[in-house]
Amino acid sequence: MAFPVMEVVLGSLISLYLVETYLALRQHAALKLPMLPVTLQGVISPEKFKKSRAYMIDKSHFRIVHEAATMLMDSMILLYRIIPWLWKRSGSFVEYVGLDAENETLHSISFFVAVLVSSQIFELPFSLYSNFVIEAQHDFNKQTKRVFFKNLSIELCISSLFGAPIVAAIISIVQRGGNYLVIYLWGFSFVVSVTLTIVYPLLIAPLFNNFTALPDGELRKEIENLASSLNFPLENIFMMDGSTRSTHSNAYMYGVFNKSIVLDDTLIKQCQDTDKVVAVIAHEMGHWKLNHTIHAFAAIQVLLFVHFGVFDIVRQSSVLFQNFGFDTQPILIGFFIFQHVVMPIQHIFSFCMNLISRSSEFKADVFAKNIGYGTALQAALVKLQEQNLSAVNTDPWYSAYHYSHPPLAERVAALDELNKKSA
User: Residue 107: how many CB atoms within 10 A of its CB?
Assistant: First the structure.
């Protein structure tokens, strides 16, 4: 009797959905709690807590519905053999436009674009509701529908333009890789990762937002002084007009060797004073100083190498392809099958990466505190939570599974403990 691959995959899909739904319901119950955590009582105003609670409950409702629809769609795709059907239609399209349908690269690129478009169509009503109902009701969304669809079109074009040559390269590597296939695939993914790290902030991000040099003044001077004191290879400091799309705030760094800092204009406005903004940057520089980015990148590379090794086994199994409705073994479909077969393991890896990330966040907080920004960082975290209406009450199981950053109550408690020890 043949091993029931499809039944196991569907069982894994449904089991993961049930586990994540259980965690989501626990989180939903935590969000409904009428009282602030003890750590945050007297720190966050009752008015902000009430707004945050309402916003996060709305988002929680939406997430539960979205995940149910996604699980139902994924199950139907597997049960009704939608992928084999779409693969055949993609080949027919290649033939229709006068190209060679027997060419696996052309066929795969056609399939890749079809999947991109189909995914966008499925996600469109959820994106519209999220942006123009939930985010708008809570005064976060600032973009018009025209800008929304413009950005959506740009994203689809960029994904197609960048994805097509990557798909072609992967097929070529697999066809010619031989005994060193895993090494070649990993080497290619490494080059792509580094290239995108360089290309995205320079060529892609400016398509969605305007980036201007942070004006001379106290804030720029304080950031430059901090960078100098830490030997941080600062190249540029930019301000991004994030407020044109949303009132949520963010700050990030980019660059392989020399680093540039990007500050949301909303971050500067929400933090209100220089010390809080610089404290946030001190935290980010802590990640750099403690090599967290390098360690995370290295861990991902190891995982990718293992993944490619498993993929090499999966792609050679004609039984797996037959179970998914294919009588041939297209390389790109091999990746699709691989993703479904190792889905439970990927979730375990994701959980482990979140644990590591949460630990790194605490360490970066400690770093900022040790160089004199502990009080300012704590004030900045509270301020940003109030302005972004982030979750205040969180279920420990849910946050451990989903959050790459510790909840605010845990970070404030940890900083309080450090301040007590220092005192």
Answer: 24
Question: Active-site residue numbers?
Answer: 284, 365
- Share the mean pLDDT of the chain: 89
Looking only at the bridges linking them, the beta strands covering 234-240 and 259-264 are: parallel
| pLDDT (average), residues 396-410 | 89
CA distances from 254 to 51, 151, 217 (A): 33, 22, 22
* Mean pLDDT within 187-194: 92
pLDDT, residue 25, reads 95
Residue 361 marked as a ligand binder = yes
Which residues lie below 8 Å from residue 163, measured CB to CB, with a gap of 6+? 112, 113, 116
How wide is the angle at C-alpha 74 spanned by C-alphas 73 and 75, nearest 5°? 90
**Integer Cα distance of 52 and 392 in angstroms:** 7
Q: Which of 254, 373, 34, 68 is nearest to 237 (CA)?
A: 254
- The terminus-to-terminus CA distance of the chain in angstroms comes to 70
Q: Provide the residue count of the chain.
A: 423
Place of tokens 């066809």: 175
| Pair of tokens at residue 243 | 């407020």
- Supply φ then ψ for residue 102, to 5 degrees: -80, -10
Is 249 in a helix, a strand, or coil? Answer: coil
Distance CA 411, CA 41 (A): 14
Q: Is 283 annotated as a binding residue?
A: yes
Strand-pair partners of 263 = 239, 251
List 239's β-bridge partners, or say none: 212, 263
